[in-house]
Amino acid sequence: MRAALYDRHGAAREVLRVEDVQRPEPGPGEVRVRVEFSGVNPTDWKSRSGATPRPMDGFQIPHHDGAGVIDAVGEGVDPGRIGQRVWLWLAAAGRRWGTAAQWTVVPEHAAVPLPDGASAELGASLGVPAVTAHRCLFADGPLDGKTVLVAGGAGAVGHFAIELAKQAGARVVTTVSGPQKAELAAKAGADLVVNYREPDAAGQISSFTGEKGVDHVVEVALGANLQLDLAVTRSGARIVTYAAEPADPVLPVRACMNANVVLRFVLLYGVPPEALRQAASDITAALADGALTELPVTKFPLDEIAAAQDAVENAAVGKVLVIPG
């Protein structure tokens, strides 16, 4: 099969290459998937570049996310799954067989049935961002009747956080940096969209929430946004952050104490397996309900995988997908 791979860390155009490798066979408890689309996320370029290096088993086929069709199953897996459309998550976590290839092999639980009506493009866009959004939202309990602030509502995590929170019965406020992103966040269903660069951003949010304040924050840039978060949250609110900035933030400890705020940090690689599986189940249910929608998609052929990863590194709006062909 044709696959993109690397065997050392470095810049995309220096270490990524496309070549023929032996098509993998599924082992016990595994399925093999003919990949239609491979989703690219920031974790992919960070691992490849060496910014957040992970062990390699000889070589690494990148990308955790994807969508395709099961064409073979290993021992212990129901043969009835052959021919099933699926979406994939954490395909390359501790494994060499990522989704940037014509076929991938994953544990059967990481190949989740894709409901009728959900496109392969949407399926390949889920994975890391949707599971991250789910963990950030629900690690501390239900959200029905609560007010959630999603920072960066036009990003992939922010997009799915808005939609999953709305489905769960929350009111959702989101912050963005400009009109194009505001349109995307509004389309996702946010009740209030605020440009965080405006001087009265905190006032706009507080006017919307009233005295109660925000109950829960899904945060993409803790250092940059903590002052705004503390200004609009209620006492005892939870701020859940899933991304690291280039420089670690300096926490205003007294202000956090005064707010009795709870900080939670999320990295999917360390989330309990049962929580990941629950997220996959809930996301699939939301798909079946039509609650999740596509972001704008930019597609690259497999031979242009370096350009695809560079696009994500340069903060392309929407989702970047690779077509293994």
Characterise this structure:
With 325 residues, the protein is α/β, with parallel strands linked by helices. Helices cover 32% and strands 26% of the residues. It contains 11 helices and 15 strands. The strands form 3 sheets. Strands 3, 4, 5, 6, 7, 14 and 15 form a 7-stranded mixed sheet that branches. A 6-stranded parallel sheet has the order 10-9-8-11-12-13, with helices on both faces. A two-stranded antiparallel sheet has the order 1-2. Strand 8 (147-151), helix 5 (156-167) and strand 9 (171-176) form a beta-alpha-beta unit. It is globular and about 60 Å long. The protein starts with a strand and ends with a strand. The relative contact order is 0.16. The mean pLDDT is 97.
Could you give a quick summary of the protein structure above?
Helices cover 32% and strands 26% of the residues. By secondary structure, the protein is α/β, with parallel strands linked by helices. The protein folds into two domains: 156 residues, Quinone Oxidoreductase, Chain A, domain 1; 141 residues, NAD(P)-binding Rossmann-like Domain (Rossmann fold), CATH 3.40.50.
Provide keyphrases for this structure:
26% strand; alpha/beta; 2 domains; Rossmann fold; Quinone Oxidoreductase, Chain A, domain 1; globular
Q: What's the structural domain tally?
A: 2
Quaternary state reads: single chain
Q: What structural category arises from helix and sheet content?
A: alpha/beta
Beta content comes to 25-35%
**SS element count, helices:** 11
**Radius of gyration from CA coordinates:** 20 Å
Query: CATH-wise, what's the superfamily of the largest domain?
Result: Medium-chain alcohol dehydrogenases, catalytic domain
Order of helices and strands: EHEEHEEEEHHEHEHEHEHEHEHEHE
CATH architecture heading of the largest domain:
Alpha-Beta Complex
Please outline the major beta sheet. 7 strands, mixed
Mean pLDDT: 97
CATH topology of the largest domain: Quinone Oxidoreductase, Chain A, domain 1
Number of strands: 15
Distance between the termini: 10 Å
